[in-house]
Amino acid sequence: MSEAGATKKFLYINRKAPYGTIYAWESLEVVLIGAAFEQDVSLLFMDDGVYQLIKGMDTKGIGMKNFSATYSALGDYDVNKIYVDKDALAERGLTLEDLQHLVWEDENEDWAEKDSIRLVSRDEIAGLLEEQDVIFNF
Amino acid sequence: MLHIVNKSPFTTTSLESCLRVSKPGATILLIEDGVYGALDGSRVSDAVRAALADRTVCVLGVDAAARGVEGKVLDGIDVVDYDGFVDLVAANDGVQSWL
What we know:
The structure holds 2 protein chains of 2 kinds.
Chain A: E1 9-14, H1 23-35, E2 40-45, E3 82-85, H2 86-91, E4 103-106, E5 112-115, E6 117-120, H3 122-131, E7 134-137
Parallel strand pairs in A: 1-2, 1-7, 2-3, 3-6
Antiparallel strand pairs in A: 4-5
Chain B: E1 2-5, H1 14-21, E2 27-30, H2 45-51, E3 56-60, H3 61-66, E4 78-80, H4 82-91, E5 95-98
């Protein structure tokens, strides 16, 4: 654990589809636990990980917990930098409109509601990786 | 023959291999993460659409619904429920699961 007052840049990379494996859910659990330590947290969804953010999931028929609503709570935990690989979306026939609308409230601007999702290119992702102190992979 | 694919076409070559070696008249059922192969507008949808010319392609509806993609399934793909899954297994002489 870092020393008191030291903030590190944490990046959680999500590359798996939800439900077929446990990775997506486990990542969410770790992100929420980590959020309690007030680090500078970013999430990156690339490859099949972009499927995690699709809206309108209904898991009743498969008998599994639908954890997709938890993504909309991330903003309340100051997790508001959610990067999505725009090329990964495009090659899967998806657009930003297919994803949940994730927002956070900026206390420095009278709690103005702002978008959490930022579509990024592969060049931008390369830069994002270089900036981090710690990277977690799911 | 019934071919079952349960992996995302972007993670493994299961769907690609299945499409390559399934015969005309065969049925291909997409389940679990395999349902992503049924979506329109993706990098693999042209290959799946081509298979529809001589093979039957089905998707397990509950798996598509769980993933929020039931409304994005390619035209021509049949959406089946668990009973339909059982019917497909009973109606076909063999089952090949592409793990």
